[in-house]
Amino acid sequence: MRVIKWEPFRDMDDMFNRFVADTLRRFPMQGGAPGNDGLSSREWAPLADVSENDGEYVIKAELPEVRKEDVNVTVQDGVLTLSGERKQEQREENERVHRIERFYGSFARRFALPENADEQGIRAECRDGVIVIRIPKQKQVEQQPRQIQIQ
Cβ–Cβ contacts within 10 Å for residue 71, how many? Predict the structure, then answer.
């Protein structure tokens, strides 16, 4: 059995972080670091859907304009990590930018895997800006109680 630290406020934190991120998307930041041409980058994470069927769990994450060479999927100690980087496109010298609403830079998403996940059988594919990660389920053998002899 895997022991995963229970964090009672994780869902509230996630909800708050999504709310703040959505709010910031509506009001893009002005200014930025010196030498950044007034552009500012913020942390971002790809949106993901998690579902399951009888044989597997499926994670679908949106990664538009991210090359599959720039994405890493790793699994360790029951946690699947999706990480990578979306690079900002080069601007022409005479190009004036009026607004930037898309996020650039490094990202990471972590997913705690259930006990019946087969970590060795995980596979991923990337198509049309969406990465699909398939996590097969292991067959769970129901353990029968057995009598222990007292000596």
Answer: 19
Exposure pattern of 74-96 as b/e (b: 16+ CB <10 Å)? ebeeeebebebebeeeeeeeeee
In b/e form, how buried is each residue of 24-56, taking b as 16+ CB within 10 angstroms? eeeeeeeeeeeeeeebeeeebbbebeeeeeeeb
Q: 151: number of CA atoms within 13 Å, CB side?
A: 0
Spell out, as residue ranges, where the chain has pLDDT lower than 70.
Answer: 1-9, 21-43, 141
10-89+100-136 placed in CATH 2.60.40.790: yes
* Residue 143, both tokens: 């353990």
Using DSSP, state whether 149 is helix, strand or coil. Answer: coil
Per-domain residue ranges for the chain? 10-89+100-136
For 82-95, the pLDDT digits (tens) are 999 888 777 788 88
Predicted TM-score of the model (pTM): 0.65
- Answer positive or negative: Cα dihedral of 144, 149, 150, 151: negative
